Amino acid sequence: MRTTYQSIYRQRETHLHTPKRRHFLSGKRLGLFTLLILMLSVTFGSIVQAWSGGTEDPENMLQVIVQPGDTVWALAKEYMNDGDDIRQHVHDILQHNNLVGRHLQVGEIIEIPFVSSLDR
Fold first, then answer.
1. How far, in Å, CA of 42 to CA of 47, rounded?
2. Number of Cβ atoms within 10 Å of the Cβ of 79
3. Which residues make Cβ contacts (< 8 Å) with residue 7, sequence separation at least 6?
4. Reduced to 3 states, what is the DSSP secondary structure of residue 6?
5. CA 53 to chain centre
């Protein structure tokens, strides 16, 4: 069998330039996959938040701007109904506003749950 320079060159060229395996998560695919995961996370997070929240009536919430010297205890005492347990009211305020401690920042807006005497 007789070979020429050209046939050897073609054999080496095809041997050296074999197609590379594409990785599943490379380049554009990685970006699209990341975007899809992010969108799904936001969607499911919104659904969970909607199901878990919204149990309180917004009409029974009073928004208060925290003034210097205000404490959760003082605000709870000021806006609680007669005969209510102040400790439970403080707990409700902390839980509703996702406050970890009892320290408030001046200018912060917090919501205080209350029940008017007409609602009883």
1. 9
2. 15
3. none
4. helix
5. 13
Express each pLDDT in 2-11 by its tens digit: 656 555 555 5
Mean pLDDT of 73-97: 87
The pLDDT, as a whole number, for residue 80 is: 84
Q: What is the pLDDT of residues 59-71, one digit of tens each?
A: 678 899 999 999 8
Contact between 114 and 62 under an 8 Å Cβ cutoff? The reply is yes
DSSP code string of 42-57: HHHHHHHHHHHS--S-
Structure-token pair, residue 118: 């007409």
Contact predicate 71/42, CB 8 Å = no
Do 60 and 94 meet the contact criterion of CB atoms below 8 Å apart? no
With H, G, I as helix, E, B as strand and everything else as coil, classify residue 62.
strand
Do residues 109 and 75 touch, judged by C-beta distance below 8 A?
no
Q: What does the DSSP assignment read for 35-96?
A: HHHHHHHHHHHHHHHHHHS--S-GGGEEEEEPPTT--HHHHHHHHPPTT--HHHHHHHHHHH
